[in-house]
Design a protein that fits this description.
It is built from 6 helices and no strands. By secondary structure, it is mostly helical.
């Protein structure tokens, strides 16, 4: 790690950790949605919306701190990219839940639970990794595993698309379900963007 003579603003670490913890909350709400009765989904959606708003607040706080800090713990562009990618994850998860409710989906296709399990695991890994930005230690396994999970998510997504287009569903239902599984795939991609940003930060600081 590079030796610095100037003090650094350290509150960024706490804010990134809080943002990642909020993503874990979102992933748990996704898991809860899977086993919920249709009548209970609106209430889960409201809680997810509240979590997404909390994520927005965390992102705005990071941007505000970035704009008011003379010295930052690592490159400003990487701080911005990391905060934005974390925010994207929450946005995609909230969108998926909202679509399930708005489209009044009675039964999600088999395979969506695997998508959500991958997201839940990626959320846990991301929350565990964020505090390690302080020291830049023990992060290699994190980004390797998140990239592996994203590859797994790609395979699940392709199988889901094949299932949706096998003739079982009518055209309108296919459009609805495809939008939901596509948004969940975008969430997996966003986790990979976070991991790639962390890798970039570690390489620059080493």
């Amino acid at each position: 790690m590079r030796f610095r003579l100037t003090p650094r603003e350290t509150s960024f670490y706490d804010m990134f950790a809080a943002s990642a913890d909020n993503i874990v909350t979102g992933s748990k709400l996704l898991m809860e949605l899977l086993g919920a009765e249709t009548s209970a989904r609106s209430e889960i959606s409201e809680r997810m919306r509240a979590a997404e708003h909390a994520g927005d607040d965390a992102t705005h706080a990071i941007f505000h701190q970035l704009n008011s800090s003379f010295i930052t713990p690592f490159d400003r562009e990487d701080i911005y990219r990391l905060a934005s990618s974390l925010d994207d994850i929450m946005d995609f998860m909230e969108e998926a839940v909202d679509l399930v409710v708005l489209y009044q989906i009675e039964e999600l296709p088999k395979g969506v639970e695997q998508q959500i399990e991958v997201l839940a695991r990626a959320a846990e890994l991301t929350a565990e990794a964020m505090p390690n930005l302080r020291t830049m230690d023990n992060l290699t396994e994190y980004w390797i595993e998140v990239n592996r999970l994203e590859n797994q998510a790609d395979q699940i997504h392709r199988k889901l698309l094949a299932h949706l287009f096998n003739g079982k569903y009518d055209a309108i239902e296919v459009l609805k379900l495809k939008q939901i599984v596509d948004v969940l795939e975008e969430a997996a991609d966003a986790f990979e963007h976070v991991a790639n940003t962390v890798e970039t930060i570690v390489v620059k600081e080493s």
